[in-house]
Amino acid sequence: MTDQPDLTPDINVLALVPLLRSRARHYVDDQDAADRLVETVLKDAIANPRRCTSQADVKSWLLDRLLAHAKLKIAIKNWVMWH
Description:
This protein is mainly alpha-helical. Helix content is 67%, strand content 0%.
């Protein structure tokens, strides 16, 4: 027996990748950095799963994580520039 949560068949994380990439491009300065940001968010989501009951719930959760990671990345970049 495993401790993995049950998968809900109507949740499709792959369908959210284009939206995540688009939002990430608004937060960081280039496409490669945006893709790395999305990759980081998805890896973090896999490592720290949350029980989501709908596609909208997953979308909201991933977008929140994306924004949090982007803010951290921007804060680190600004700190490095000024120190």
